[in-house]
From TrEMBL:
GO BP annotations, alphabetical order: microtubule bundle formation; microtubule polymerization; positive regulation of protein polymerization
Alphabetically ordered keywords of this record: Cytoplasm, Heme, Iron, Metal-binding
Signal peptide feature range: none
Subcellular location: Cytoplasm
SUPFAM superfamilies the record matches: EF-hand
Highest taxon listed in the record's lineage: Eukaryota
Similarity comment: Belongs to the TPPP family.
GO molecular function: electron transfer activity; heme binding; metal ion binding; tubulin binding
Species per Swiss-Prot/TrEMBL record: Cairina moschata
Protein name (record): Tubulin polymerization promoting protein
């Protein structure tokens, strides 16, 4: 009789099966995570110093793709001009350009906020020579804190003889003169094409339309109508008075 050995049974898995995840709960968890991250970023943004805020405002000026974390040379020069870091005596435009080239990386065209502070430290020694290094840095910071780029106004039109000769219609000659009336308003088609004058008057005649007024005025004053008299005399020679209304 064969020996029968008891078969070993595997221990039952007591771990409960995972329930299917709820999509709504997952979305809520992600939203809470995003809210916490955004609130953290907002807190960091709120802790920005006035100097860094000014740096970011100038860094994004004129560039819609800028993030505000780096500043290129053009905006660096504008910052120094608008904030009066450049005084024309101790600090010039050349000094600003030299410091920017010195601070930025060899292959880089921009500077970070930390490099920006280094550049200001370099300029502060020249801008405030009579103060200590720490005081000079604080003074140059005060010039920049809370500032924003200055937007220049609309460019005014420059009046010059050359421009007025091109825009003043009273000075036009030839065919261009015929396209405008004395007030400077364009004549439209009449100024571009030669329209036929069917009035019956020759060109340049200044008394057009005055004949009827003269004839009517002479009748009112009792003056002799010589054209009618000459017609009567001509008909009298032929003894045909019926043509003029006489029996």
């Amino acid at each position: 009789m064969a020996d029968s050995k008891p078969k070993s049974t595997k221990p039952a898995n007591k771990t409960p099966p995972k329930s299917p995840s709820d999509p709504a709960k997952d979305r809520a968890a992600k939203r809470l995570s995003c809210d916490s991250n955004s609130s953290h970023e907002g807190a960091v943004a709120g802790d920005l110093s006035a100097l860094e805020e000014a740096f970011r405002k100038f860094a994004i000026h004129g560039d819609t793709r800028a993030t505000g974390k780096e500043m290129h040379g053009k905006n660096w020069s504008k910052l120094c001009k608008d904030c009066h870091v450049i005084d024309g005596k101790n600090v010039t435009v050349t000094d600003v350009d030299i410091v920017f080239s010195k601070i930025k990386g060899k292959s880089s065209r921009t500077i970070t906020f930390d490099q920006f502070k280094e550049a200001l430290q370099e300029l502060s020694k020249k801008r405030f020579k009579d103060k200590s290094d720490e005081e000079a840095v604080q003074e140059i910071y005060k010039l920049i804190e809370g500032k924003a780029p200055v937007i220049s106004g609309v460019t005014k039109a420059i009046s010059s003889p050359t421009v007025s000769r091109l825009t003043d219609t009273s000075k036009f000659t030839g065919s261009h003169k015929e396209r405008f009336d004395p007030s400077g308003k364009g004549k439209g088609r009449a100024g571009r094409e030669d329209l036929v004058d069917a009035s019956g008057y020759v060109s340049g005649y200044k008394h057009a339309g005055t004949y009827d007024h003269k004839v009517q005025g002479s009748k009112d004053r009792g003056e002799t109508d010589w054209p009618l008299v000459s017609r009567i005399l001509l008909l009298a020679l032929h003894e045909d008075w019926s043509d003029i209304g006489y029996p």
